[in-house]
Design brief:
single chain, about 325 residues, alpha/beta, 9 helices, 8 strands, about 10% strand, globular
Amino acid sequence: MTDASAARRPGEQTLAALGLGAPDLSPADASPHIFPGGGRWRTEIPSCEGPEALAVVLKEASRLDVPIHRISQGSGVWMLTDSEITEMVEATAERDIELCLFTGPRGTWDIGGSTRTDSRGAGLRARGHDAVAGCVEDAVRATELGVKCLLVADEGVLWTLHRARVAGIIPADTTLKVSALIGPVNPAAYAVYENLGADSINVPSDLTLDHLTEIRRVSAAPMDMYIEAPDDLGGYVRMYEVAELIRRGAPLYLKFGLSKTPGIYPYGHHLRELTLSTAKERVRRGRLALDLLARHGADGDMAPLGSRLPGELRRFETYS
């Protein structure tokens, strides 16, 4: 294994032998940041919508030897019973994996017609006081049941939950993750999310490598990126870039999504077979990406399993 900050690129030796070598990588492009406790990348299996899907993911991860730092769910805390949340908390805690559940109502699921226009209006954001209240209720309920990571898709909800964390309403070690559905696309916006309380920030999968370098010049907050994005997020497959994504974007969560599959949010048992089969395939996609990293000599610098905290980050001053 080699240092991921000096990662090789696909086909590099063969192309160089044919006189088609790429320009040398610039050290100035590499991110200088790492996760606390060491490591430049962690892994995440998204869209794990309940205990049954979680069991499939854990079984397949063991079979394929796929290390997992975080497992996330997309339908929301409110779509799970207390017993289902507790089962998921216990199963992930047993393996020292962080469990991340989505909070509350979203604009695309309520009566706001603007989300169905070409402009998409306010998108996924929480519309009105009651929607924010629903997100807060989800956060309190989930953390009381042992969930330590919350997924948000609204700047106001993020700031509110950060203030709740500072005030001790939810545990201080709760981590807040920004959804890809509202992910920032420039360094200024990325820095704003960090200051609002984000502990990891999912950027859209169509950002260029130079965009990642630009972000890393202003923020060390952990970044999440779909190595393969669901179709409703563009369907991008960037597996051959994974080593360079780590070099530019560290500290980086590698998210193993799945394209060419129908959406499953909000999940119910009518979507059971699709949800279980896609959960299993996401783990396989993870194995393919990890194998590719190994072939490129870039599989070093994985963060220790069980690590979950983001390190010291910048925050706006809170108020009472």
